[in-house]
Amino acid sequence: MENLGEREKNPEGVGMDLRVGEVYKISGKGYIGLKDRKTPNAEKIADVRKHKGPFTLEAHSYVLIHTIEKVNVPAEKIVIEEGKAPVYIMPHVYPRSTLQRSGILLVATKGDPGYSGTLTFGLANLSDVDFEFDMGARLVNLVWDQVHGEISRPYAGQWKDGRVSAQKLERQI
Q1: Where are the domains of the chain?
Q2: What are the C-alpha distances in Å from 173 to residues 153, 155, 158?
Q3: Domain 6-165 is classified in which CATH homologous superfamily?
């Protein structure tokens, strides 16, 4: 992990909280086919380095958020516990409970062995009222899990290094 906040250098519980660093509004059409894909356009509308004060996620709206933290998931098996066989590891992402208590849906996925970069998630405000969060606030909780057995190959996809959207129709790997 890179760019951890002070609190996460000694995390509580089993997970590490990640902070929102950028917010993106999506527009245009997305497409996923048998061989090709295209994501909607993503326009940065807030950045922790420039945006002061809270960000408002309006009722019934959707944005993408990008973490400040960067994960580096080993592509090879590692030893977790001395005397035990090496295993792959992968991060699972969960919402902080304040999000779900506020009607906010976190749209997330797992991270594969071999992925390196910042993480991008969707936030949907399902409620009838606006929701505010500060840039740099801890919104998600990352938990590392062991993967037993073999994988056919580590992640080598186009989303490595924290890319937010595809600029054009592209071939899926």
Answers
A1: 6-165
A2: 12, 10, 8
A3: Deoxyuridine triphosphatase (dUTPase) (2.70.40.10)
- Can you list the positions of beta strands (E) in 2-158? 16-27, 31-32, 36-38, 41-47, 54-57, 62-72, 88-95, 104-107, 116-125, 131-134, 138-147
Alpha-carbon gap, residue 66 to 21, rounded angstroms:
6
- What pLDDT, in 10s, does the model give residues 34-88? 988 888 999 999 999 998 789 999 999 999 999 999 999 999 999 999 999 999 9
DSSP 8-state secondary structure symbol assigned to residue 46: E
Is residue 33 classed exposed, middle or buried when 0-12, 13-18 and 19+ CB atoms within 10 A define those classes? exposed
pLDDT digits (tens, 9 = 90+) for 140-166: 999 999 998 888 888 777 666 666 776
Bridge partners (DSSP) listed for residue 141:
17, 94
